[in-house]
Specification:
The complex is a heterodimer of chains A (149) and B (82).
Chain A: H1 3-25, H2 34-56, H3 61-81, H4 118-143
Helix pairs in contact in A: 1-2, 2-4, 3-4
Chain B: H1 2-22, H2 26-46, H3 50-74
Helix pairs in contact in B: 1-2, 2-3
Classes of the chains: A mainly alpha (149), B mainly alpha (82).
């Protein structure tokens, strides 16, 4: 692509990634979540692939594939870890675990990040799966041999 | 005020969708389709569904545009006359 597209892509890549990871991290407090944040991060990957080409973007198919499988395994693994009560039981919430263990304050509040138990972890699992899945779709399409290249 | 914004957004969606069909240059058509997605995501935001708006902006305006641009680079840019 042209130098204009390359420069703007290079400038916008980091803000897009930060916003996507922010949406994943705050999935249990604000609109959005794993899927939406992962889609935003994947659109950042797509921007980089369109601007710099499949080779120049520096994304590895095998790494993306491994992260995708890892996200799915973390999601199902967390669901199985709650099996003492039920499948998908939120065993970390309200003092049950090390992280995300605080009680949700009552009344109107700006939202406490350290709440909701396994939900943020599952948001991260879904986010990793979605960002690597959609990213590898675009990467493989760019690697596909075409008519003119 | 809300109704005015919605009417403007729907008119933009219709106009950009019509242009996406009519353009002979397929790259312009893809950009018009991205404009449809952008206006649609703003419309979702006005309708108080910010969740759907983020998904629409990420997937509709970002990923599908990238997929179409990559596909156009590997095929022909102009639509054939019939």
């Amino acid at each position: 692509m042209s130098k204009l597209v390359r420069t703007i892509g290079w400038l916008l890549y980091a803000p897009i990634l930060i916003f996507g990871f922010y949406v994943i991290m705050h999935g249990h407090l604000t609109p959005g979540g794993g899927f939406q944040g992962g889609a935003v991060v994947a659109s950042g990957f797509a921007l980089l692939i369109v601007a710099y080409g499949a080779k120049g973007a520096g994304l590895k198919e095998r790494l993306l594939s491994a992260v995708e499988s890892g996200g799915a395994l973390i999601f199902v693994g967390l669901a199985f870890l709650g099996l003492g009560a039920t499948f998908f039981y939120n065993f970390l919430a309200a003092g049950g675990g090390v992280v995300f263990n605080e009680l949700v304050p009552s009344g109107p509040n700006p939202g406490d990040l350290n709440t909701a138990g396994t939900l943020p972890l599952m948001n991260w699992a879904v986010g990793l799966k979605v960002l690597s899945g959609l990213g590898s779709i675009v990467l493989l399409l760019a690697l596909f041999p075409g008519e003119e290249e | 005020m809300d109704a005015v914004v919605q009417v403007v957004l729907l008119v933009v969606i219709l106009a950009a969708g019509f242009l996406a069909i009519r353009f002979k240059d397929l790259l312009s058509s893809v950009v018009a389709l991205a404009a449809v997605s952008l206006a649609l995501s703003l419309e979702f935001y006005v309708l108080q569904a910010p969740d759907v708006a983020i998904a629409e902006a990420g997937i509709g305006a970002g990923l599908t545009t990238a997929v179409f641009v990559l596909t156009l680079r590997k095929t022909r840019r102009k639509e054939e006359e019939r």
